[in-house]
Amino acid sequence: MNNLLKEFTKGLWKEIPPFRLVLGLCPVLAVTTTMENGLGMGLSATFVLVCSNVLVSLFRNIIPNEVRAACYIVIIATFVVCVEMITKSYFFQLSESLGLFIPLIVVNCIILGRAEAFARKNTVIYSLADGLGMGLGFTASLTFLGAFREILGAGKITLLFGDTVFLAEPFNFIQQAPGAFMALGLILGLMNLFGRSA
Amino acid sequence: MAKYIKMILVLSIIALTSGLVLGGLNEITYETAQNNILKFKKIPAVTSIYESIKGTIPQENRIKVESELLTERKEVNVGEESPLLVFVIKKDDKPYAVAFEKFGGGFGGDLGVMVGYKLDSGDIAAIGITTMSETPGLGTLVKEKSFLSQFTGLSKDTKIMIKKDDGDIDAVTGATVSSRAVTQAIRRTKALYDKHQGTIKTEINQ
Fold first, then answer.
1. 3-state SS of B79-99?
2. In terms of CB atoms within 10 Å, which of A170, A198, B13, B79 comes out highest?
3. What's the whole-number mean pLDDT along residues A99-128?
4. What pTM, to 2 d.p., does this model score?
5. Where do the domains of chain A lie?
6. What phi, psi does A91 have (nearest 5°)?
7. Per-residue pLDDT for B37 more than 80?
8. What's the pLDDT score for residue A2?
9. B12 at A interface, C-beta within 8 A
């Protein structure tokens, strides 16, 4: 039980994907212009990660070693297309703002990475905990980064406070692509500063 | 040998299952997804054309007008793969203009433009942008009124190209490709309308 909890919580802080492992940066940088986008992207990736982790782990003794990468990609791609269809039908506005980045979850290295590094060697229940932890860590990072960039770049957080404006003259720069690197770098630096002693 | 058979078998079974699952899910979600595009992309564009013909719609009437426009649509066969979806805009209970959508090649993929034609003169009534994935802050500016309004009431003899290409249209500064895509889409609707306006007119008067 303790081990299970450890597998779950490691993704939330110790190995939190974008900030600690610095993995999966493409969506992290590209879609975190607002908190809503960050949260939507995070949840989509979490769904794919959890499902693919469970399936890979379930079939880990059946899938031949030589074709495992191909099998994992097919499994992951299936769930990604599912997410794409579901967002297009039921969360249309979100699918509009995330656009191409939903199909690109297929090549998100966190997902293939967890399948290869964890799910294929561990039982289903552990893989589930690992996927859930990593996914939620990823979601939390994206949501936080999105909120950070939205409040500085647009002066408001639409998801939480509607149209209330906090900054009269926002730094639009932080919502653009170079601003994403700056924001990520700042957060990474702060986490290293305070995380090292802990 | 058995090893290879197993490899092929496992991968095939996984791929087959995946195909079946996705096919099933597509069957379930396809209609909702198409309806979303119709509702959130096409109808707002048609509504903006409607507004530039009949004036701004008061907020309380907007839903009613939108649902009316949604029902006033016809599928016209113009010899393409799928029938053309034509929206009819009425004035005094008679069809006054038709609107349909074509695509131009934008900076980030296809850019959809809904173009309204006046039935009597064949002039452009107005246009509206439906789908696009242009650069935020530059290409997306083609959605602004300042750019779109220059197409309102444009005579059918106007050369619909941007000034850089010896046409009559002012491009958005810094968004030449996107502006070009809009004119390209309009030229495609125009070619279609010129060729098939007879068919379209008979179809909508039924």
1. CCCCCEEEEEEEECCEEEEEE
2. A170
3. 91
4. 0.80
5. 2-145
6. -130, 65
7. yes
8. 82
9. no
